[in-house]
Each structure stands twice: as structure tokens, then as C-alpha cells.
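Researcher: Let's do a round of design. I'm pasting the C-alpha cells now; please hold your answer until I've finished.
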């Protein structure tokens, strides 16, 4: 016997009611799951932030450290002029256009294992990838493509000396993950070089190594943090000075003295 109209209506009403309950029950389950997910993510972020702060206070360079490293950019057969900061220092890794990297992290983003030379490259407007260097003025050197005056194509490498005070210390020649190279200790020396492969062993140490003994921001003096308003100037004797806009103070750096070249023993990272 066919169901009556009233029976059909009752069945439809029951079906609609069941559907509403299903939607309501699903919504009731989704809300606590979403809250739980937010709590978990929040806890993970707090844990991560705490671990970063702990590392910044335990792994050198720490937030309280003040390190320096000599630096030079060597292309084909000569050192380029020391690079200048491209803007205000937000992390604590900068230069006074003196051929020295000044490393005194005031952010956990540049302390401990996060203190790497890539942050210095960013600070001075250089783009460095494995095999390619783009200077702040746009000049580009690419491994296997760009040629030096002698007609040979060059290769981009970073030579790192662990101790600038020890000319006999064996350096590392880094060809991979160059920008990730860490500042492992105070008074290191770095030469970012683009040279023919057969001249890698003759890459010289930075000419600015003597400047490590003639710094204006060592302990006992007021650190000079460059700003976007700073104006570098070069004196007739080769010395450089930086005057900050709105400030009467001027930081003067003695001219760089050529350092004796040291033939590195090649150790390729990666």
C-alpha cells in the first residue's frame, strides 16, 4: 500500500531534522578542533622563540659579543674598494667602509649560528650565490662565463682564514653555500674572489687586516652604527670618515695597509 501524504511529510521532516543534526554535530566538533590546533601552534611558536633566545645567549657570537673580521672583494687581479652599507643596520652586522665586518648582534636573527656572511652581503647590497656575484653597482661576475683581462674565465670562491693574526693559518676555500659561511670566531679574515681556477691558490688575504688593530668601536668607545643618513668621505691620505646626518660626531678610519699574500691550502666546502 502506498504511503499517505501525511506519512510522506513526516518522513521528509525526519530526514530534514537528521540533516540539521549532522551539520550541527559537525560544526560542534570543528570548533574545539580549531581551538586545539591554535593552542598547539601557539605552544610551538613559544617553544621556538624561547630556543632562539637561548641560542642567542649561549652560542657565539652572542648578543653581548662584539667581533670583527677583515674583508675584501678580489676580482681577477685586484681588490675592489671596500663596500659601504646600503642602509640602516637592523641586525648588528655592518661595515664602516673600512674593509672590516663589524659583528655585534642586537637581534637573535644575527646571533649564534645565524651570524653568517650572507647577512653582511645583504647589508652592503651585494648578491652572492654559488657561482655568481653581483656588486652593489650591478657589476656581475659569473663562474665559467665572465672573463678576466687575461682572457680566462673566472670562478667565484670565498677564502676564509680562521685567524687574521696568524699568516700561516691554513684557510678554507668555499665554493658552495658561500652566503651560509658562519662567523666562527673574532678576528677572522675573508676574501671573496673571482679568479681563474689556476689562480685560486694565490688569492691574497684582505688588505684591511691591519685595520683590525685600529677600530673606533672596540670596548671602551661608543659603537658607531651607520644609518641611512651617514655620509662617507675619503681624505687625501686615504683615510675614511663617516659623518651622520644630524650628528656632529665623525668616525675616522686610518687608510688600509697592504697585507702580505698567503697561499691558501684549498679545502672545498660541500
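Researcher: That's everything. Go ahead.
Model: Designed sequence:
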Amino acid at each position: 500500500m502506498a504511503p499517505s501524504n501525511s506519512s510522506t511529510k513526516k518522513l521528509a521532516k525526519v530526514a530534514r531534522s537528521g540533516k540539521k543534526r549532522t551539520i550541527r554535530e559537525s560544526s560542534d566538533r570543528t570548533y574545539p578542533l580549531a581551538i586545539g590546533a591554535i593552542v598547539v601552534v601557539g605552544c610551538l611558536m613559544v617553544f621556538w622563540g624561547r630556543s632562539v633566545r637561548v641560542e642567542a645567549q649561549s652560542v657565539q657570537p652572542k648578543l653581548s659579543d662584539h667581533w670583527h673580521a677583515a674583508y675584501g672583494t678580489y676580482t681577477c687581479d685586484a681588490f675592489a674598494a671596500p663596500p659601504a652599507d646600503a642602509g640602516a643596520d637592523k641586525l648588528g652586522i655592518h661595515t664602516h667602509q673600512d674593509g672590516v665586518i663589524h659583528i655585534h648582534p642586537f637581534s637573535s636573527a644575527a646571533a649564534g649560528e645565524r651570524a653568517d656572511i650572507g647577512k653582511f652581503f645583504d647589508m652592503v647590497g651585494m648578491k652572492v650565490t654559488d657561482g655568481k656575484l653581483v656588486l652593489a653597482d650591478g657589476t656581475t661576475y659569473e663562474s665559467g662565463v665572465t672573463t678576466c683581462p687575461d682572457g680566462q674565465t673566472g670562478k667565484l670562491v670565498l677564502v676564509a682564514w680562521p685567524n687574521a693574526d696568524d699568516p700561516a693559518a691554513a684557510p678554507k676555500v668555499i665554493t658552495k653555500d658561500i652566503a651560509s659561511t658562519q662567523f666562527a670566531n673574532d678576528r677572522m679574515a675573508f676574501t671573496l674572489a673571482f679568479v681563474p681556477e689556476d689562480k685560486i691558490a694565490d688569492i691574497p688575504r684582505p688588505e684591511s687586516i691591519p685595520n683590525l688593530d685600529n677600530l673606533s668601536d672596540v670596548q671602551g668607545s661608543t659603537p658607531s652604527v651607520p644609518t641611512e643618513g651617514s655620509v662617507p668621505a675619503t681624505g687625501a691620505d686615504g683615510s675614511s670618515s663617516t659623518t651622520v646626518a644630524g650628528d656632529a660626531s665623525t668616525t675616522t678610519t686610518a687608510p688600509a695597509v697592504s697585507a702580505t699574500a698567503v697561499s691558501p691550502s684549498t679545502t672545498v666546502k660541500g
